[in-house]
Fold:
Amino acid sequence: MTYALETRGLCKRFGAIQVTRNVDLKVEQGARHALIGPNGAGKTTFVNLCTGMLKPSEGAILLNGKEITGVSPQRRVGNGLVRTFQINTLFNALTVAENLAIPTAQRLGKSWLPWGKTSHSAEVVTEVAKLLDELHLLPLADKKISDLAYGQRRLVEIAIALALKPQVLLLDEPAAGIPNGESGMILDLLERLPQDISIVFIEHDMNLVFRFAKKITVLVEGAVLTEGTPAEIRGDQRVRDVYLGRRHHG
Ligand SMILES: Nc1ncnc2c1ncn2[C@@H]1O[C@H](COP(=O)(O)OP(=O)(O)OP(=O)(O)O)[C@@H](O)[C@H]1O
Ligand SMILES: [Mg+2]
Structure:
């Protein structure tokens, strides 16, 4: 079986500190795969290794069965491996549509010019409108990011990743910072994503994890503690001891 994303013996050391320990992760095609674990477990580091922002100390990363360990971050995106960030990364002075036009133009190989000031951007404009429509975000198209509620900004961040047409989408805490009980808007969006996109998501909001994930991997101190279905993870005493039973925050 060819996995959408696979890591083999992935290790990362910063000097004497080891933050990723021999991680073998297999993400199936069309996965809804959550990566959970306490603060500092190495979840974001894992995403940074997969996307090429960090170079592993040891191990290999495969995208659709092809090794990409030495491939540049840009080429990984071109090959369909796309991530979002734990912290907001939008252009606040631009509108939602403008924010989406940038990655869309990048993917289509067109230079991006200020909205409305270019004749060759018709394809970009059409693609942006289509994406916003699919995600039920058209009403936000002409709003400036700075005028959006925080949760809406997080939706736009996911939309930006989708504008790059990912095969594998890595979401680093898509609901971080959203008040308790309002993460439903993230879940609604995630449930609307095409089934053939393989999704790996990191989240501390366990409501979201248990409702969306089909498979969960638990990372503790850089290593995989265990993995299984949501029911298996919920019932695992070790997971309760190190994570689920404790107070935690994003
Ligand atoms: N550039 C770096 N140099 C040294 N240590 C680092 C570096 N980046 C991360 N770390 C350490 O690696 C560990 C894992 O960090 P990471 O951000 O991956 O955790 P996380 O699981 O995403 O945590 P959180 O749930 O809080 O987001 C932490 O102890 C962190 O301090
Ligand atoms: Mg993190």
